[in-house]
């Protein structure tokens, strides 16, 4: 199964909560991933930051490779880097299933998205809160996923930006139903339901999981809020 096919397969799981590996215990990565998988998590979100595109520095291909060795869950790699084109092959080779780049960092978003697909990964395009969504229409045909940031990229634990809800609805109106709409930043018990109602289907959660003692309860609660039980 191609890595893009794995994205399609995951899609049919309606709402998906993806823990963002930024606030986790990297000193016990294997244990952390095991706990997350036991908690019912189906995919991971890896926050790659270069200290240039964002004022924070996290990790690169070695951590992606380590996660690839530890789990077969799809790896959703969020590149918050100034020159994503320089690293696409390395992140694909490290095991990324989805590679998401920031539209603000791309010289030529179409070329970058095409390269991601040519490598065999699913292509994602991310928009920071202040970036107008109008230009999304120019790239929608090359997006397997659109990431709407609900905080300014760079740090976990930030407050949710309520303007995100309109942006999610706007993004959904621009891209078709077969594009995954993902939201990232400040997603927790208080904010996930309104994001789901606005059209989001993948939910990146950092502090809403890693600052809770019981990952299983946290993930279950978030999923229940994201996909309310069918009535009737
Ligand atoms: C921020 C990252 C997010 C962040 C989420 O730049 O892209 O994934 O780590 O963390 P919370 O859920 O704590 O806002
Ligand atoms: Zn992220």
How would you describe this protein?
The protein is an alpha/beta fold. The chain has one domain: Aldolase class I (TIM Barrel), CATH 3.20.20. 36% of the residues lie in helices and 19% in strands. The protein has helices spanning 3-11, 29-38, 61-70, 88-94, 109-119, 136-139, 164-174, 192-197, 207-210, 215-226; strands at 16-21, 44-49, 75-80, 98-102, 122-127, 145-149, 180-184, 202-205. Strands 1-2-3-4-5-6-7-8 form an eight-stranded parallel beta barrel, surrounded by six helices. α3 runs parallel beside α4. The longest helix has 12 residues, at 215-226. The protein is globular. 47% of the residues are buried. The model has no long low-confidence stretch (mean pLDDT 94).
| Biggest sheet details | 8 strands, parallel, barrel
CATH class: Alpha Beta
Number of strands: 8
Q: Hetero groups bound? A: D-xylitol-5-phosphate, zinc ion
DSSP strand (E) fraction?
15-25%
Shape: globular
In which range does the helix fraction lie? 25-40%
Q: What are the segments in which pLDDT stays under 50 over at least 5 consecutive residues? A: none
User: Architecture in CATH?
Assistant: Alpha-Beta Barrel
What does the average pLDDT come to?
A: 94
Strand order of the largest sheet: 1-2-3-4-5-6-7-8
Q: Give the tally of structural domains.
A: 1
- CATH T-level fold name: TIM Barrel
Termini Cα gap:
37 Å
